[in-house]
Amino acid sequence: MTELISVAQAEALIAEHMPSFGSERIPLEQAAGRVLRQVVQAEHDHPPFDRVMMDGIALRWSEPLPREFAFAGTQVAGMVRQALQAGDTCIEVTTGAMLPAGCDCVVPVEQLRRDGSHYQLVDGYQPARGQFIHPRGSDCLAGAKLLAPGTRIGPPEAALLAANGVAAVEVACIPSIAIVSTGDELVDVEAALGEGQIRRSNDMAIATALRLDGFDRVTMEHIPDDASLTQDKLAQLLERHDVLVLSGGVSMGQRDFVPGALDALGVRRVFHRIAQKPGKPMWFGMGSRRQAVFALPGNPLSALVCASRYVRQALRLSLGIPTSPPEFACLDAAVDTSTMLTCFVPAHVQTDPQGRFIAYPVPSRTSGDFSTLPRTQGVVQLPPGESRAAAGTVVAFYRW
Asked: What is the mean pLDDT of residues 366-393?
């Protein structure tokens, strides 16, 4: 029997073997949610000029400061820079405009009265030198590093890329992923159930988890419990895809054909069986062309735990996304654990009025029971050593 490895060993082995799937250059408008594979530097100083922050007038500050200024011109956003000639004059300005040359103070329109061709400061208002001016380069200087490889492109990142002239961006390629359910008992979602049959659900759960992470090149397949068919179908899928995620047929029963088929196809086993509950039979290996193959148990909770704990993290790693540490939560109630196995228990989490992050265990009756999972946001990871984790224990929490 294959020796069990720990959860930490499984995680490390996957990270050690997980390939990169390369990069591609795409238009910025198509890059939402993609992961950067380039360093992005500031094209110029930000802001690129002394920028007016309020509608009003720009003037030259002095002490004492005149209370009235003659109108000497206008500076609006996008206009070439104007210049102030005399200290008792002012230039009308709008938000976002360049600060006119010779000016070092902006007075907002709320603090002004207009009298013909002159502006007067309202009674009692005392402006300060430099007020309402966004100085050139105060955000960052030209050449400053703005974004690093591994950054997922969201609204702020897209704005930075656009502002710095990055019209085409280098991003990690999204791998082609086949999600494969095995078993004679499985039928399609829309099919009528015959005696002894159940509808396929693991593939839909896993595909949804991956698509939420941006892995949208996903196909779903089904293989009956037949040794020859299993090997033939897996051979075809290995030719067409970068990643295979299987559920079912991976244990040591007489109709568990997946490990043997993968071995016959030259997929090198990295490990088989993890000291955890649920999900002990998980298998991971590498194809001859560096395809990553994850074979998960067929029980729904087992499959979802392994997909969330290992597959999603491995695929993020392949894109260059840095590994995120788990969240940590305080158990609201005691929960059964194991002296030999790491246990994963579904949990509902929330922050209590005192600001503590609390996990409320929602144990499943079996690894085939997933009816209560919609009430949860993920699983707590309970290390081996005791037969019961007490209420108040701080545990790692992993989201679905």
From this structure: 91
Instruction: Provide CATH code, domain 51-134.
Output: 2.170.190.11
Amino acid 301: pLDDT: 95
Q: How confident is the model at residue 1 (pLDDT cuts 50, 70, 90)?
A: low
Q: Return the pLDDT at 176.
A: 98
Given the candidates 3.90.105.10, 3.10.20.30, 3.30.1070.10, 3.90.1150.10, the CATH classification of the domain at 24-44+145-172 is 3.90.105.10
CATH number of 7-21+174-319: 1.20.120.530, 3.40.50.2000, 3.30.70.20, 3.40.980.10? 3.40.980.10
Q: Which tokens is 336 given?
A: 């059964």
Domain boundaries, the chain: 7-21+174-319, 24-44+145-172, 51-134, 327-399
Per-residue pLDDT at 253 exceeds 80: no
CA distance 26 to 171: 7
Nearest to 175 by CA among 80, 244, 261, 249: 244
Q: Token pair for residue 7? A: 């959860």
Measured at the CA of 11, the angle between CA 32 and CA 398, to 5 degrees, comes to 60
Tell me the pLDDT tens digit for each residue of 181-230: 999 999 999 999 999 999 999 999 999 999 999 999 999 999 999 999 99
Pairing of strands 276-277, 342-351: parallel
149 half-sphere exposure, CB direction, 13 A CA radius: 13
Question: Which residue, chain included where needed, has tokens 């002004």?
Answer: 112
Residues in CB range of 189: below 8 A, 6 or more apart = 199, 200, 204
Instruction: Quickly list DSSP for 173-222.
Output: PPPPEEEEEE-TTEE-TTSPP-TT-EE--HHHHHHHHHHHTT---EEEEE
- Encoding tokens for residue 92? 């009308």
- The confidence band for 254, taking pLDDT boundaries of 50, 70 and 90, is confident
pLDDT given at position 255: 83
What is the pairing mode between strands 198-199 and 186-187? parallel
CB 261 within 8 A of CB 227: yes
